[in-house]
Amino acid sequence: MVCYEEAVNTDACDLTAHHGLMKSYLALGHWYLALTHSPCHDSANPLSQSLLPHQIEAAWKLGDWDTLGSLLAKEGPSHSWETTVGE
Q1: What is the pLDDT of residues 59-75, one digit of tens each?
Q2: What angle do CA 54, 57, 61 make, to 5 degrees?
């Protein structure tokens, strides 16, 4: 996880590092960190969009149903495994 954090700090647009960091958070049970990790404040940003499935999984594991609902609404028509479980 530390390596992914360092990679994200070095290059904030590194998609692979963000996905690795999110997977690490989820695997270690750091669901709140996965849910709140936001590389961009613009939800329309492709990087933010690509991290939605991880955030959906985190919201589901936390039982944060309101946040889960709002994240599912952002996901749109392309459903990942995490999104399908969240629904």
Answers
A1: 999 999 999 888 888 87
A2: 140
How many domains does the structure of the chain reveal?
1
Token pair recorded at residue 37: 């990790």
- Domain with 35 in it: 2-86
Which tokens go with 77? 């028509």
Alpha carbon distances (Å) from 76 to 29, 71, 87: 26, 9, 12
Considering the entire predicted model, what is its pTM? 0.76
